[in-house]
Amino acid sequence: MSLFRLQGKFTDNLPKIYALYTGGFLLFVALMAIFEQMGMSADTIGLCFVGFTIAIYALIGWLSRTMQVDAYYVAGREVPPVFNGMATAADWMSGASFVAMAGGIYMGGHPYLAFVVGWTGGYVLVAILMAPYLRKFGCYTVPDFIGTRYGGNLARFCAVVVLVVASFTYVTAQIDATGTIASRALQIPYEAGVWFGLVGILLCSMLGGMRAVTWTQVAQYIVLIIAYLVPVFWMSIVQDFGWFPQLAYGDAVARIQELEPMLQVGVLKPTETIAGVSTLTNLHAAPGDSALAAWKFVTLVACMMLGTASLPHILMRYFTTPTVRAARSSVAWSLFFITLLYFTAPALATLTKLQILDPNLATSIIGKAVADVNALEWIQKWGAVGMLAISDSNADGILQINEFFMRADIVVLATPEIAGLPYVISGLVAAGGMAAAMSTADGLLLAIANALSHDLYYKMIDPHAETKRRLIVARVLLVVLGAAAALVASLKLTGILGAVAWAFCFAMSGLFFPLVLGVWWKRANRAGAIAGMIVGLGCGSLYLYLVKWGGMAPWAGLDDLRFGIVGTAASGIAMVVVTLMTKEPDREIQAMVDEVRVPSGATILSSTH
Amino acid sequence: MFIHLAIWFLFAYLIQWFANDLNQFRFLEFPVGFYMAAQGSLYAFVIQLFVFVKQQDAIDREFGVAEE
Questions:
Q1: Angle, alpha carbons A275-A277-A278 (nearest 5°)
Q2: What is the average per-residue pLDDT within A3-20?
Q3: Counting Cβ atoms within 10 Å, is residue A320 exposed (0-12), middle (13-18) or buried (19+)?
Q4: Which residues of B touch A120 (CB under 8 A)?
Q5: Is B67 exposed, middle or buried (0-12, 13-18, 19+ CB in 10 A)?
């Protein structure tokens, strides 16, 4: 298996290798289906799926081990655009996208589509404003860009702080997701699931850094996209919506809108509250006709877009392409691969909801006798772990819409069981969810550890450290950070989607303007950038605190999911004002900015800086 | 001269692509319904980016700053 060492040969053979891998994975799924028919228990199947996929990722991680700085930080800058697109898609699509997004749409209806739009449209900003220029710069990390563009350790340090705050918030949500899935699939307590997930994540990234993460992320993308698409296609065929659900589920939306008044969705409010779960009270496709609803939609979209363009773990993926041109086309490929999942999520939410609501389908539960519903296997299993609850509030023996409580995060994971698909599909979905959460957690932990080891340790504390020492520091940090994140995750402070939205808001508050203006405004100087980062992160965090815990009424509907709007605005103003008040940067810096905008020629920073 | 080129570069696609982006924001503000938010705008983004890549490459080549 010297395959991964012979890099030149390896990158030439990528399509073949991953085609083989995909075939192998499908074969494994088929094998599991056969075993299920032969009477293998559901628990064993779940165990096999999660165990087998993690073993593969760990193998890839081990084969990609490296002691070279270039390979560790930026995968040797030789990842072809299409594959980098896949890796970015996996890096990007986290537990929130895979596990929580469809659930959000299921529970919240139209307003949650803002996540779908924002998380795709953000790539337009990445391609046009950021990725090609940062690639030209030749940096290893995002603070590396800030530190060199503006000069000085303080600017670099501020960028490190923003990066750590945003990424750490994000990574706890991912480890939370791996814990949820591992605990369900492996039948272990949630806390043990969290640590189990962490070990898997570290196996992928520790030895090979960016190089290992890149190749495991491609593998993880393949698993997660198969796992997401199969149940939707299956349900669509069973429900007679044809072979291509994404185009044909309009009828299903119409049917839900027809059923909603009959079942009194939105009219019947729950008469009791059960911790952690809620009933369906929002209409599926009603955008809300007030200006405030439209404003909230647009601000959430804006938060997600600007956040996308500022998240260090995404931007650093584009440092790995061979050329500037490749970085640009790789953004387009990323968006393509992401869209494959995102335009399926609303379809999944719609079809699953129909399974539960439509009295013509055998799987429906609303309007059935409570005793019958309670006898269903999936109700019992998910009920046992506190993810759903049934309470006959009005004691009429019939399940009404306001008596069925569920946690939004389980919609995707429970869909195969709700729709009565064979258990092998549930195992597949669990493996997919695991892949999504692990791939993002890998990228995030690596982003934090790299920033701390490269920017804080090497550039600021000990600039003479030798390569070996730098890479060991990076790895030790990776383990320590992972453990800290798992510890925080096991406290379960907030939901998955909420934590992710916060991470975006933190990133955009602190980094959006310093990055964009760093490329596009030659006049932008050190003092301005520092002010932008400090004021942005400070105002954003303060606003979050006041709205979430301080009891302050949000301004114009900007609640805790949208605090990035406040932070970014403050950051932009502070940066422009302070820049204009202070001296313009010297000629050398200005020439550097010009140079960044030209694709040809050497990178600004040498490859072994 | 190089600076001019860079500035031109910047404006050529700033105008071209920002107009496009602005359209899309506005388009979201008037909800054209579930479909557009769930799918329509996603298609638009994907197509837009591939076109952008192509055009940008052409511009790079035209002004002799392409790689290779």
A1: 115
A2: 67
A3: buried
A4: 41-42, 45-46
A5: middle
Beta-carbon contacts of B38 under 8 Å, excluding residues fewer than 6 positions away, are: A113, A116, A343, A346, A347
A154, A506 Cβ separation under 8 angstroms:
no
Q: What angle do CA A62, A413, A481 make, to 5 degrees?
A: 40
Query: Which residues neighbour A15 within 8 Å (Cβ) at sequence distance 6 or greater?
Result: none
Lowest mean pLDDT, pick from A123-132, A288-297, B47-56 = A288-297
For A369, the 3-state DSSP assignment is strand
pLDDT in tens, A365-409: 777 777 777 777 778 777 777 777 777 777 777 777 777 788 777
Which residues of chain A neighbour B3 with C-beta distances below 8 Å? 594
Reading the block at residue B6, the tokens are 């860079």
Contact A399, A390 (CB under 8 A): yes
pLDDT band at residue A270 under the 50/70/90 scheme: low
- At residue A9 the predicted structure's pLDDT band, cuts being 50, 70 and 90, is low
Classify A275 as helix, strand or coil.
coil
Nearest in space to A193 (alpha carbons), one of A173, A169, A175: A175
The residue among B17, B25, B39, B48 with the most chain A CBs within 10 A of its CB, best to mutate, is B39
What band does B11 get if pLDDT is binned at 50, 70 and 90?
Answer: very low
Q: Do B45 and A120 touch (CB under 8 A)?
A: yes
Q: pLDDT grade, residue B17 (50/70/90)?
A: very low
C-alpha A403 chain-centroid distance: 32
Residue A24 vs residue B60, higher pLDDT: A24
The two structure tokens encoding residue A414: 């429970």
Q: Percent of chain A beyond pLDDT 90?
A: 0
Query: What is the number of other CB atoms lying within 10 angstroms of the CB of residue A187?
Result: 12
Domain range annotation of chain B: 2-62
Asked if A111 is an interface residue toward chain B (Cβ–Cβ < 8 A), one would say no
With a cut of 60, say whether residue B20 has pLDDT above it. no
Q: Residue A239 and residue A235: Cα distance in Å, rounded? A: 6
What is the per-residue pLDDT across A39-79, written as a single tens digit (0 to 9) for each?
777 778 888 888 888 888 888 888 877 777 777 777 777 88
* Structure-model confidence comparison of residues A232 and B49, the more confident one: A232
The span from the CA of A269 to the CA of A255, in Å, is: 22
CA distances from residue B14 to A50, A332, A523, A586, B18 in whole angstroms, order as listed: 46, 18, 18, 26, 5
Q: Helix, strand, coil proportions of chain B in percent (round to 5)?
A: 85, 0, 15
> What ipTM is given for this predicted complex?
0.74
Q: Is A151 left (phi over 0), alpha (psi -120 to 50) or beta?
A: left
Q: Do A346 and B39 touch (CB under 8 A)?
A: yes
Give Cβ neighbours of residue B46 (< 8 Å, ≥ 6 apart): A120, A332, A335, A336, A339
Residue with tokens 């388009």: B27
CB B59 within 8 A of CB B13: yes
| CB neighbour list of residue A469: distance below 8 Å, 6 or more residues apart | none
Domains (ranges, CATH) in chain A? 2-358+419-596 (1.20.1730.10)
Tell me which long-range contacts A545-549 makes (C-beta under 8 A, separation of at least 24).
Answer: none
Task: Judge whether A592 is closer than 8 Å to chain B, CB to CB.
Answer: no
